[in-house]
Design brief:
It holds the Pfam family cobW. By secondary structure, this protein is of the alpha/beta class. It is built from ten helices and twelve strands. The radius of gyration is 19 Å and the shape is globular. It binds guanosine-5'-triphosphate. The site of guanosine-5'-triphosphate has 21 residues, from helix 1, strand 9 and strand 10.
Length: 303
């Protein structure tokens, strides 16, 4: 029986996993391979799934990460995906996932005959890595674990650091995980041929760390009922605590016909105008956040 290749895409919040997935899907399509995607997002609303083309089978796991809360669901979703005649499955894990625990789910005896596990691909945001001292000890450890268990490391956002910094970071990766292939990328641009050449590393037996459960990461979801003022939103962004790591969503601004896709990662906002109506949901992810306060502030802007 033909085995279906399976890849795990990991990496910190906002590092470039979705960008990587989009690149891969384009290349897979050009190669005429049949692909399925399993998305696992924090927060109960999907922002990323809109970018997956309709002909790609897609399963989504919400509320919690694969590693801690929904292991059984992962198995049943994989089983369903395997009913399609597939060449490969890509799992995009939440930025808060511990990769080895995701791996445990896939390596279940249930799938021994049907899946060929290819490896963990970790995307590292080089800015985030450079400034990791500002993270809480738990998040710093998670970042480290994501790197340590990777088979393939993308040192991403090369455009945002100097050559010297990039070289230094690449050097430190070799110290942390000498067995992994490391590449420098901008916008997670890698060639599929490279990824397919991945050979599974022999995984050392690991003690279950259950890091995900101890992180105080929260995902807050807000639905806007009205358009808001761009200036108000801008000043809200400027006053956000630096424990807000990631935001994604659609925002409608006064005087513009269609909403904007809003992305925020590590203090950097990014807006792109859409050409149609979108559900006005915003997901805010961070540590030690007070959901009531944030929702109240967002609601105030809608007055
Ligand atoms: N400047 C720059 N921006 C990048 C690069 N790669 C990704 N981005 C941007 O960083 C933001 C986050 O990228 P995503 O691909 O959505 O990150 P992610 O890891 O999927 O994020 P989560 O799903 O929230 O964990 C987006 O605004 C991207 O356009 C890069 O190499 N350089």
């Amino acid at each position: 029986m033909k085995k279906v290749e399976i890849y795990i895409l990991g990496g910190f919040l906002g590092s470039g996993k979705t960008t990587l997935l989009r690149n891969i899907l384009e290349q897979e399509k050009a190669a005429e391979r049949k692909i399925a995607v399993l998305l696992n997002e924090m927060g109960s609303i999907s922002i990323d799934s809109g970018m997956i083309q309709d002909d790609v089978p897609l399963k989504e796991l919400f509320d919690g990460c694969i590693c801690c809360t929904i292991q059984d669901k992962l198995e049943s979703q994989l089983q369903e995906l395997l009913l399609n005649d597939l060449d490969a499955i890509y799992i995009e894990t939440t930025g808060a996932a511990h990769p080895v625990e995701v791996l445990d789910g896939i390596l279940s005896p249930l799938f021994a005959e049907s899946l060929e596990y290819k490896g963990i691909i970790t995307v590292v945001d080089m800015l985030r890595w450079r400034d990791r001292e500002s993270l809480s000890p738990q998040l710093k450890q998670l970042l480290m674990e994501q790197i340590r268990h990777a088979d393939y490391i993308l040192l991403n956002k090369q455009d945002l650091v100097s050559e010297m910094e990039a070289a230094k970071i690449a050097f430190s990766m070799a110290g942390i995980n000498p067995g992994a292939t490391t590449v420098l990328t901008s916008h997670s641009a890698v060639s599929l041929a490279d990824l397919k050449a991945l050979k599974m590393k022999k995984k050392a037996k690991h003690a279950k760390t259950e890091i995900g459960q101890h992180l105080n990461l929260k995902a807050i979801v807000h639905h806007f009922s009205n358009a808001i003022n761009m200036e108000d939103f801008d000043s809200w962004l400027k006053n956000l605590p630096d424990t807000v790591y990631r935001m994604k969503g659609y925002i409608s601004f006064k005087n513009s016909q269609y909403p904007y896709l809003f992305q925020y990662s590590y203090g950097m906002p990014f807006f792109m105008q859409e050409s149609m109506k979108m559900p006005l949901n915003l997901v805010v992810i961070g540590e030690n956040l007070e959901p009531e306060v944030i929702i109240e502030q967002l609601k105030d802007m809608e007055q």
